[in-house]
Design brief:
single chain; five-stranded mixed sheet; oxidoreductase; Rossmann fold; NADP; EC 1.17.1.8; binds NADPH dihydro-nicotinamide-adenine-dinucleotide phosphate; alpha/beta; 26% strand; Dihydrodipicolinate Reductase, domain 2; binds the ligand O=C(O)C1=N[C@H](C(=O)O)C[C@H](O)C1; diaminopimelate biosynthesis; 251 residues; six-stranded parallel sheet
Length: 251
């Protein structure tokens, strides 16, 4: 990429996209060349000379956006949630036909959230019980959050590696949903509360003690340093990367 990275933002009028536009305009090494929102023609990206896009749109549209970008050799830094193994495989397939293009899919761009996930994975092997509670604004489309899903997967992997079995739970009768969603054997609970932004607790417990690891994004500006870090690194990472931790030396 050039010294100043030419950036297009998809979802530019949205809650996070508008913060990202501000950050890209303010950073000394990035230039905002395209603001795209619902109804806009993606062709404008090509005309703008965008070398990389940032996508904070909606799980229903993000795959179409990425297919377009990869086909045109435009790198992508993706915050939009809703990625499962099948979607990631589809992305890998598109990227195989465009081997110099990089796509970063990150469930959470805040450094605090990345550390919270890492600490949770580290703690998981020491405790019999572990559950995740995610708390978000009520305009959120997906549940559980991408962050909660990823956290639960990391906890489950750490428990497997440590030879831990299922967490104790004597529930034999319950209203549907009362024990949350099952992600890889880990219970994940979602709250949607006006006034909140993005918050998560990981609650662990063993004999006579509990450990709670909590992260709070009080402002969507918390996501922008991570997005800029992704933009600065993406051209040097062709193919698919899942998780900003791989670009920050946290892996
Ligand atoms: N990874 C991370 O760190 C974070 C991820 N997120 C995720 O990012 C996504 C967006 O969140 P948020 O900003 O709160 O949502 P918003 O609804 O506020 O913003 C999304 C924007 O994208 C627009 N949009 C819809 N379709 C298209 C399209 N085809 N092309 C371009 N723009 C489009 C929407 O327009 P319209 O409203 O008219 O449909 C809206 O302006 C969610 O999936 C959320 O979970 C959020 C925060 C952090
Ligand atoms: O929709 C949001 O707001 C957020 N979405 C991401 C997620 O689903 O994990 C990241 C953060 O929690 C905010």
């Amino acid at each position: 990429m050039t010294e100043t990275i030419k950036v297009g933002v998809l979802g530019a009028l949205g809650k996070v996209g508008s913060e990202v536009c501000r950050a890209v305009e303010q950073a000394p090494d990035t230039e905002l060349v395209a603001r795209i929102d619902a109804g806009d023609d993606l062709g404008g990206l090509v005309g703008s000379g965008a070398e990389a896009v940032v996508d904070f749109t909606h799980p229903d549209v993000v795959m179409d956006n990425l297919e377009f970008c990869v086909r045109h050799g435009i790198h992508a830094v993706v915050g939009t949630t809703g990625f499962d193994a099948a979607r990631l495989d589809t992305l890998r397939g598109w990227l195989a036909d465009s081997p110099t293009t990089g796509v970063l899919v990150a469930p959470n761009f805040s450094i605090g959230a990345l550390l919270m996930m890492r600490f949770a994975a580290e703690a998981a092997r020491w405790f019999e019980s572990a559950e995740v509670v995610e708390l978000h604004h009520p305009d959120k489309a997906d549940a559980p959050s991408g962050t909660a899903r990823r956290t639960a997967e990391l906890i489950a992997a750490a428990r497997r590696d440590a030879g831990l079995g299922p967490a104790p739970d004597a529930t034999s009768t319950a209203l549907e949903g009362a024990r949350g969603a099952d992600v890889d054997g880990i219970r994940v609970h979602g709250l949607r509360i006006r006034g909140m932004v993005a918050h998560q607790e990981v609650v662990l417990g063993g004999l006579g003690e509990t450990l709670t690891i909590r992260h709070d994004s009080m402002d969507r500006a918390s996501f922008t340093p991570g997005v800029l870090a992704g933009l600065r690194a993406i051209a040097d990472h062709p193919g698919l990367t899942v998780g900003l931790d791989h670009f920050l030396g946290l892996d």
